[in-house]
DNA sequence: AAGCGATGCAACCGCGTCTGC
DNA sequence: TGCAGACGCGGTTGCATCGCT
């Protein structure tokens, strides 16, 4: 049995939205809130399908959207999260307030892919291009401390509150493992020795030999931004590598 | 100035998942 | 428990704009 169309295509507009359509959509959502996308177009007096309205609102009209260029910091976050999650644009967008999955997806395909390729990094695998596929034991990898089964068990562990209600993460890790069997996705949850007084880190990257900063993970060991033990050693009290350089709370996956 | 390819981004499409009955 | 409708996501397309020749 075929899937029924999401809307009556014969009576809907397609293509670019007009100012009038935008205004109608904004006015309706301001008055009634988001949701019921299926019935929204008719109620709002729009000749659009619900999906189109939803997309327009989420990707363009939402008042909390951050317009404008991505910052270097956002670039790095996207790269890191993509190395972790793959093409899970909505999850990546969830870590970047004001950015949409569509925007990040477009930005990845137009800017970051090229940026990584210029650095000699395969954007799909985040490995150096021309790197041998086998024997990655000594290289830094994105590391988790548990397999997907263990991840689910961790849900009961209060210490790992970031994993609560996170079957999604298990699935992501699991699917990532399937997609990239050579990618180490063990989930490493270990408190930083220097930060025991602080809240538990939600997620740490742990290299096999040492914790790496973003720059080192990107193969930029001599970067002046390097803040790990592999690159320029800044001080004895180096903060190590807090995932993405973010505080633990920022990484609350479901915020 | 015109032609043309490259680029960037908004929007569409199809499928998987969720949810209510 | 199964089904159908609705929603959300990721991949892809189409078009406007830019920059080079």
From TrEMBL:
The GO terms describing molecular function are: transcription cis-regulatory region binding
Task: Please tell me where this protein is predominantly located.
Answer: nucleus
* Start and end residues of each HTH myb-type domain: 9-61, 62-116
Please give the InterPro entries that the UniProt record associates with this protein. Homeodomain-like_sf, Myb_dom, Myb_TF_plants, SANT/Myb
User: One Pfam family this chain carries?
Assistant: Myb_DNA-binding
Subcellular location(s) per record: Nucleus
Among SUPFAM superfamilies, the record links this protein to: Homeodomain-like (SSF46689)
List the GO cellular component terms: nucleus
Residue ranges of every copy of the Myb-like domain listed in the record: 9-61, 62-112
- What keywords tag this UniProt record? DNA-binding, Nucleus, Repeat, Transcription, Transcription regulation
Signal peptide span per the entry? none
Q: State what protein this is by name.
A: Uncharacterized protein
Q: Which organism is it from?
A: Eucalyptus globulus (Tasmanian blue gum)
């Amino acid at each position: 049995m075929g899937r029924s169309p999401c809307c009556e295509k014969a009576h809907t507009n397609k293509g670019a939205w007009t100012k009038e359509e935008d205004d109608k959509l904004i006015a309706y959502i301001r008055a009634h809130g988001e949701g019921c996308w299926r019935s929204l177009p008719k109620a709002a007096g729009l000749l659009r399908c619900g999906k189109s309205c939803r997309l327009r609102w989420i990707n363009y009209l939402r008042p909390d959207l951050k317009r404008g260029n991505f910052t270097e910091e956002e670039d790095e976050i996207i790269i890191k999260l993509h190395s972790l999650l793959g093409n899970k644009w909505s999850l990546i967008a969830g870590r970047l307030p004001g950015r949409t999955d569509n925007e990040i997806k477009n930005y990845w395909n137009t800017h970051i892919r090229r940026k990584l390729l210029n650095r000699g990094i395969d954007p799909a695998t985040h490995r150096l291009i021309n790197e041998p596929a086998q024997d990655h034991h000594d290289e830094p990898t994105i590391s988790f401390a548990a397999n997907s089964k263990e991840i689910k068990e961790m849900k009961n562990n209060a210490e790992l509150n970031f994993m609560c209600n996170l079957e999604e993460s298990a699935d992501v890790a699991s699917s990532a493992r399937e997609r990239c069997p050579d990618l180490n996705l063990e989930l490493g949850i270990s408190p930083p020795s220097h930060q025991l007084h602080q809240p538990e880190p939600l997620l740490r990257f742990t290299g096999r030999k040492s914790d790496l900063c973003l720059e080192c993970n990107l193969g930029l060991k001599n970067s002046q931004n390097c803040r790990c033990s592999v690159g320029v050693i800044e001080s004895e009290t180096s903060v190590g590598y807090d995932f993405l350089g973010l505080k633990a709370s920022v990484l609350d996956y479901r915020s």
